[in-house]
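Troubleshooting: if your tokenizer reports a length mismatch, compare your output against this known-good record of 105 residues.
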Amino acid sequence: MAVFEVVWKILLMALITYLCRVLTLVLVRKKIKSRFFRSLLEYLPYGVLTAMVFPAVLYSTSSFYSALVGMIVAIILSLFKRGLLTVALSATAAVFIVELIIRFA
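Known-good structure output:
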């Protein structure tokens, strides 16, 4: 993946997150009382970022299976409320180990 492509994706994610927050402040002047809309506006940026990042996760390694194992490890650790560094390093280690197993099996 080219550096330009990575920078473009990061800028696009930042723009989408920024727009979601700014549009809410500009368009809605009074406090939103609906729990549904407050929840929607709170989680919308995370949903958009997930939709943009998820496909790249599955095709970021030389094997689909190692990417899948890394993603599963990351999801499980994040469900147990581990820190970002722990999740990232553990998922990377899982991918590395699976890649070694696939290469030498």
